[in-house]
C-alpha cells in the first residue's frame, strides 16, 4: 500500500456519510492534488455497502472499510484502536476529522497515541512552506492549520514539522461541500476488523441509544436574522423572531448574546457555534468579533443593523443601517409586509 497520503475519517450514521466528512473530502481533494498524493477515506462501522458510492464522487482514490457489527454505533476504544493500528501501517501524511462530538473524542486519542499533535477547530487548511525561526530549518509542503487563537484576537497558523500524521479537526459548515467528479471511481480495500481491534477494546457495550433531533435548523436556512449583545435583552430578541417570521428566516445569535442569556446555545453562530452560509444574513447589534465572523463570513449578502457606525462587522457588510434596532426592525417588518402583498 502507498504511504504518506491524505486520509479523512468518515462519520457514518445509519449508513449515511455525514456532511462534515464530505466537506473534508472536498478540501482534502484540493490539498492532496497540491501535494501530489492520493486522497483516502476510512469507514469504520457496520452496513458500509453504500459508503463507496457516496464518497467516490468527492474524489476519493482509496476507501478503507473496517466492518464489524460491534463497531456501530461509535464507541471510543474500538474506533481509536482501528485508526491507531491502521495509521501505523499506512503512515498517512495528513488526517482530517470533523470537530463533532465524535471527532473531538477520537482525534485526541489517536494523535496522543501516535505522538502526532492535533489542531482543533480549524477554520482554514492550506499547504505551504515553513522556516523554523530558531533553527532556520526549512520545511516544504506542510499542512498549515489555521484557527483563531487567544480569544479570537489573532488568527494563528499552526504547523507540525516533524510528527506524522499532521492532524486537524474542522467544524461542520466551515468547508464547502462540492462533488469533484460524479463518474470518479476509487479502490475499495476491505480490512479484517480482528487485525485492528481486539475483543478487549469492546469493554463498553451500548445498551440503549437515543438521539434527539435538533428543532432549530440554522445551518440550512437561506435567511438568518442574528442578534448580538447589542440587542440588549431577551425581550428585544422577540423583535428578531418577529422579523424572522415575516421573512421566513431562522434566528441566530452571537456568543455574547447566548452568554447573556438572551437566547439558547443551539442558535449560536461562530467559532464556538455553527458555521452558516445563508443567502441573506441580517446582523442586529452584533459587533463582529473574529470568532463570530468565522461562522458567517461566507453569507451571500450581509446587512448590519447597529447603532455604532464603527462596529467591525460593518467592514464586511454589504449594507449598513446605523440606528437602534428597536426602531429599525419594526420598520423592516412594516415595509416588507407592505411591499410583498
Question: What can you tell me about this protein's structure?
Answer:
By secondary structure, this protein is α/β, with parallel strands linked by helices. It has 9 helices and 17 strands. The protein has helices spanning 19-35, 51-55, 76-90, 101-114, 193-196, 234-247, 255-259, 290-294, 325-339; strands at residues 6-10, 12-13, 16-17, 39-45, 62-67, 94-98, 118-122, 124-131, 138-149, 154-158, 166-170, 187-191, 223-227, 250-253, 280-284, 301-306, 319-322. Strands 7-11-6-1-4-5-12 form a 7-stranded parallel sheet, sandwiched between helices. Strands 14-13-15-16-17 form a 5-stranded parallel sheet. The protein is globular, with a radius of gyration of 22 Å. The protein starts with 5 loop residues before the first strand and ends with a helix.
Amino acid at each position: 500500500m502507498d504511504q504518506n497520503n491524505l486520509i479523512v475519517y468518515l462519520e457514518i450514521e445509519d449508513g449515511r456519510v455525514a456532511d462534515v466528512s464530505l466537506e473534508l473530502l472536498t478540501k482534502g481533494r484540493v490539498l492532496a492534488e497540491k501535494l501530489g498524493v492520493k486522497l483516502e477515506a476510512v469507514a469504520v462501522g457496520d452496513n458500509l455497502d453504500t459508503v463507496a458510492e457516496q464518497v467516490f464522487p468527492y474524489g476519493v482514490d482509496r476507501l478503507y472499510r473496517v466492518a464489524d457489527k460491534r463497531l456501530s454505533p461509535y464507541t471510543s476504544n474500538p474506533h481509536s484502536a482501528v485508526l491507531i493500528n491502521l495509521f501505523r501501517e499506512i503512515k498517512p501524511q495528513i488526517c482530517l476529522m470533523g470537530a463533532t462530538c465524535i471527532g473531538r473524542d477520537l482525534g485526541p486519542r489517536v494523535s496522543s497515541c501516535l505522538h502526532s499533535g492535533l489542531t482543533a477547530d480549524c477554520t482554514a487548511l492550506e499547504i505551504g512552506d515553513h522556516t523554523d525561526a530558531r533553527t532556520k530549518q526549512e520545511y516544504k509542503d506542510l499542512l498549515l492549520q489555521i484557527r483563531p487563537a487567544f480569544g479570537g484576537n489573532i488568527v494563528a497558523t499552526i504547523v507540525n514539522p516533524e510528527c506524522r500524521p499532521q492532524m486537524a479537526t474542522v467544524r461542520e459548515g466551515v468547508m464547502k461541500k462540492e462533488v469533484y467528479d460524479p463518474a470518479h471511481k476509487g479502490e475499495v480495500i476491505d480490512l479484517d476488523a480482528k487485525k485492528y481491534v481486539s475483543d478487549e477494546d469492546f469493554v463498553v457495550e451500548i445498551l440503549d441509544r437515543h438521539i434527539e433531533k435538533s428543532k432549530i435548523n440554522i445551518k440550512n436556512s437561506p435567511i438568518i436574522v442574528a442578534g448580538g449583545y447589542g440587542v440588549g435583552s431577551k425581550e428585544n430578541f422577540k423583535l428578531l423572531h418577529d422579523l424572522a417570521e415575516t421573512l421566513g428566516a431562522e434566528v441566530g445569535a452571537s456568543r455574547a448574546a447566548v452568554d447573556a442569556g438572551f437566547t439558547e446555545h443551539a442558535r449560536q453562530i461562530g467559532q464556538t457555534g455553527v458555521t452558516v452560509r445563508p443567502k441573506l444574513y441580517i446582523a442586529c447589534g452584533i459587533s463582529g468579533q473574529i470568532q463570530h465572523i468565522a461562522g458567517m463570513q461566507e453569507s451571500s449578502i450581509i446587512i448590519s443593523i447597529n447603532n455604532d457606525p464603527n462596529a467591525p462587522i460593518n467592514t464586511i457588510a454589504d449594507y449598513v443601517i446605523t440606528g437602534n434596532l428597536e426602531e429599525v426592525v419594526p420598520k423592516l417588518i412594516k415595509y416588507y409586509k407592505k411591499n410583498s402583498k
